[in-house]
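Sat 14:20. Reprocessing the chain from the morning session after the first attempt stalled halfway. Input below, unchanged.
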Amino acid sequence: MTRHIIGILRGIRPEEAEAICAALIEAGLTTLEIPLNSPQPLQTIEHLAKTFGAVATIGAGTVLTAQQVHDVAAAGGRIVVSPNFNAEVVAATKSAKLESWPGALTPSECFAALAAGADGLKIFPCSVVGPAGIKAMRAVLPADTAIYAVGGAGPTNFAEWRAAGITGFGIGTALYQPGQSAAEVGKAAATIVAAYDAMRG
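Finished this time. Tokens:
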């Protein structure tokens, strides 16, 4: 089963990344985002891409500039996630043949991001618009648009967001917080996967 979940590992350190990534993959999460405001993020991305690139999609989050896109591509990242929509970042991402997932919060931002070439949309923070807002936007966006809810969606409310039209989820603090062990992160991932699979039936 393909699970539409991006695991957000904000604050992860290079020396702990391999064990944590292995635990996440074992639990069934195979798309992982290393935010660029983490310690030595490019080093982590490069190591994880070399180690797990055959079985997982490794990329970067909090990508704010075109130069950062180039750095992520050079490190072996395959997905670029941003908290905002920046046309230059989307263009650089697609030029590098990476997946582009900009953040958006309004219909105008959503349509602008898609027009710029984004592969999908990260609704952030999704708690601001809520499922009702997602349902309203889904009614006017192209039917095949992939929409991920980030910042307020989690295993306790997957079904509600899914019913509103969400494609997938970005999960951060419910999955990983700095200082947690690989075992703790793996346990959290198993809970999230179980909830997601139950939602999917």
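Residues 182-200 form the longest helix (19 residues).
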